[in-house]
Design goal:
With about 300 residues, the chain is an alpha+beta fold. Helices cover about 20% and strands about 35% of the residues. It is globular.
């Protein structure tokens, strides 16, 4: 978790970004304004690591790509469906002014059921507290459930968000890009170039760079993800999102970095990293009963 501070004013700006874009105050999400896909390096690129030392990339070698780069990258989501499930680590870094905030998550995803569970860690001083309880997130088709969210929500209650109504389709709101959505975004890949073969934590991977078109991805997305990506395509002022992706020999996504840029009273750069490993690990997602879902007002 990283928070660099230069002045009180910049710190407050960084806290506002986190409150809006990491769902500390979901009601204020619209304050993020329009978003664009003009890529800037938010520091979450290769080796930037979603997992405290895991996921580092070494020894890139230029070699012939295994097939058409664009087709291979667009097929990564289908390769994950065939794999069934995986463990995941995520990192979302937001930068504005002189402030950087990194939110980390860890959990598991079932790519066949399009469901997952993450434990998301917020930097302690973002909320002005010595420590904040981790946020438990349940990812299901069309919805995001959050527990220990704060903002006036009791600790024993859940908040349910309809991801098809979020202007970012939950690419940013949860403080982690839904790993299923991260993979489905690649269905809109274009201008893909093959960088070369490399090693990712002991696994041989193929490194690609390019941009993905959110609207194109939404048209080709799986039914459980289509609605959220359609919302993101409408909410972002530009559909083009730069990415770097690492696929293994079976075409499965091992690591992907997407770079989003929000423009609202200044530029807010977001670099979202998703790391996948432990394929085949069982993942169980149990939704909370309706009585445990908070229906009161959420503080901003």
């Amino acid at each position: 978790m990283v928070v660099h501070q230069h002045r009180r004013r910049r710190r407050r700006a960084g806290e506002a970004v986190l409150a809006v874009c990491a769902a500390v105050a979901v009601a204020a999400l619209s304050a993020c304004g329009a978003a664009s896909g003009t890529g800037t390096d938010g520091g979450g690129g290769p080796g930037g690591g979603a997992a405290k030392g895991a996921g580092s990339v070494e020894g890139v070698r230029d070699e012939r790509p295994p097939g058409d780069p664009t087709a291979v990258v667009r097929g990564a989501a289908d390769a994950l469906t065939a794999a069934g499930s995986a463990r995941t680590r995520t990192a979302m870094e937001m930068a504005t002014g002189g402030t950087r905030v990194t939110i980390r998550g860890e959990g598991g995803v079932d790519f066949r059921k399009r469901m997952g569970q993450l434990l998301v860690m917020l930097p302690a001083d973002v909320k002005g507290e010595p420590e904040h309880r981790p946020i438990t997130e349940l990812l299901v088709p069309g919805a995001l459930y959050m527990k220990n969210r704060g903002a006036g929500v009791p600790d024993d209650k859940w908040v349910r968000l309809d991801t098809t109504t979020l202007s970012d389709g939950n690419l940013v709101t949860g403080g982690a890009t839904d790993p299923v959505a991260a993979a489905e975004l690649l269905r809109g890949a274009q201008e893909v170039t093959y960088v070369g073969e490399s090693d990712l934590s002991g696994t041989k991977v193929h490194h690609y760079k390019g941009t993905t078109d959110i609207a194109r991805a939404a048209r080709s997305a799986s039914p459980g993800v289509k609605g959220a990506l359609e919302a993101a395509a409408k909410g972002f002022s530009k559909d083009s999102v730069p990415f770097e992706v690492y696929l293994d020999e079976e075409g499965r996504l091992r690591k992907v970095v997407h770079r989003f840029t929000y423009v609202k009273n200044g530029v807010i750069d977001v670099s979202s990293t998703t790391l996948l490993y432990g394929f085949g690990t069982p993942v169980t997602v149990v939704l909370p009963p309706s009585g445990d879902i908070y229906a009161g007002k959420i503080a901003e």
